[in-house]
Design a protein that fits this description.
The structure is a single chain. The chain has eleven helices and eight strands. The chain is α/β, with parallel strands linked by helices. It has three domains: 1-28 and 69-121 and 279-314, no CATH class; 32-65, no CATH class; 135-275, Ribonuclease H-like superfamily/Ribonuclease H (Nucleotidyltransferase, domain 5). α3 (78-90) packs across α10 and α4 crosses α5 (109-121). The chain is globular and about 70 Å long.
């Protein structure tokens, strides 16, 4: 879908989305790019009632422009949500709930925190393409304190990261994917690679036995035996750089205070920003986030706070 004259600056954004009506019409265009279709009978005819609901002219079912999306059930004006998304996209390293609360004048920190959690869930594109080879992959730990004893990583979270290397160029980095995982077993790591890397692609890993099945699954697996940990950054430079960047981001932007059960969504935010670092202007980031928000299943504060991520999932 083409959006001529899409805003590039805050004044342009405010001129285009300064009213509730403008936001509602734009959101409707994103939800139904081919025109409205009744969710019950697929009929294209409709009229809009005083409450702003779309009423099917055949079956009379009423549909909100936000129903079934990230914005489902919101009581706040859409223009505040639009401004929140614009603000999030303009923050190079991400923003805090306190900052969002001050910007929008929200009554509670809880509301701002919940909004950011919902936006992070919308940063995952449902139909995103798999990484093309060569792809460097490695596993590691994030968060928590390293302790002395037989299990020094007891309080740390296990993650695996994949970095696309376009054309195999040493200094060029493409897209990145992170996943929080329960263990470094063969089954877990093989499933991760099969789900995020294109079939038959070149996959570069260290010599960990958890990657042993990749060649039998059709990948061009190149195992580099690291040996001493000091050689890891030389043999797998891209994933080591990415792990260092995300650790610095967590410490710098979030002061290292991320609940492990929410870590997967913070990693998706990091990936969203990094993978779009070459976007021509912030307007396209905002558009992408809003588009994905219309396809994101709605979640409540209770669901977010009680939810424990399936560490084997996507």
């Amino acid at each position: 879908m083409s959006w001529p004259g899409f805003p590039r600056t805050l004044p342009e954004f405010e001129a285009r989305f300064g009213t509730e009506r403008a936001c509602r019409r734009f959101l409707a265009d994103l939800r139904w790019p081919e025109g409205f279709q009744c969710p019950e009978c697929d009929h294209p005819g409709f009229w809009v009632n005083r409450r702003g609901l779309y009423v099917c002219s055949r079956c009379q079912v009423q549909t909100s422009v936000t129903a079934g999306t990230m914005l489902h059930g919101t009581r706040k004006p859409l223009r505040l949500w639009f401004l929140a998304m614009w603000w999030v996209c303009t923050q190079k390293t991400g923003g805090s709930a306190k900052g969002l609360q001050r910007l929008l004048g929200l009554g509670s920190y809880q509301t701002a925190w919940t909004w950011l959690q919902k936006l992070r869930r919308a940063m995952v594109r449902i139909d995103r393409e798999p990484l093309e080879g060569p792809v460097e992959i490695d596993n590691g730990f994030l968060g928590g304190k390293k302790r002395i004893g037989p299990n020094p990583y007891l309080f740390k979270t296990r993650v695996v990261v994949a970095v696309e290397i376009p054309g195999g160029a040493r200094k060029t980095v493409g897209r990145v994917r992170f996943r929080v995982i329960p263990d470094f077993s063969t089954g877990t790591l093989t499933r991760f690679v099969e789900e995020i890397v294109a079939p038959g692609a070149t996959v570069i890993t260290d010599g960990w036995s958890g990657y042993a099945l990749l060649r039998s699954r059709g990948f061009d697996h190149q195992a580099r035996v690291v040996g001493h940990p000091s050689r890891s950054s030389q043999l797998l430079p891209h994933v080591n750089r990415m792990l260092a960047l995300v650790k610095r981001w967590i410490l710098g932007t979030h002061h290292g205070r991320i609940d492990p059960k929410h870590l997967p969504h913070y990693l998706e935010e990091f990936s969203f920003r990094f993978n779009r670092r070459k976007s021509r202007h912030v307007g396209w980031l905002f558009l992408r986030l809003l588009q994905q928000g219309t396809q994101t299943y709605p979640t409540t504060y209770k669901e977010i706070t009680l939810h424990t991520q399936d560490l084997g999932g996507t």
